[in-house]
Specification:
Protein Yjbj, Chain: A, 80% helix, mainly alpha, globular
């Protein structure tokens, strides 16, 4: 029963976004340029270290822009939604 609840909570929190992120991670070579356009403080080395990992991007945004974790998460989710529209 707890597995069903976890699935429901994941869906409520935007399970679709997670699926889109899997696609971004798999094609990071194509998306890292768009990430750099969105967040200009990211260096080539940062993008290499991030390697499509959402949690690493989250930490880098917090570090480089001095923003809270929730703000960084919001920016990533917003960016991910714009990619889905392309």
């Amino acid at each position: 029963m707890s597995d069903a609840g976890a699935s429901q909570r994941n869906s409520e929190k935007g399970g679709t976004i997670a699926m889109n992120w899997d696609q971004i991670e798999g094609k990071w070579g194509q998306y890292k340029g768009l990430a750099r356009q969105r967040w200009g403080k990211l260096t080539d080395n940062d993008l290499h270290v991030i390697a499509g990992k959402k949690d690493v991007l989250l930490g880098k945004l917090q570090e480089l822009y001095g923003i809270a974790k929730e703000e960084a998460r919001h920016q990533i989710e917003t960016w991910t939604k714009t990619l889905s529209k392309k």
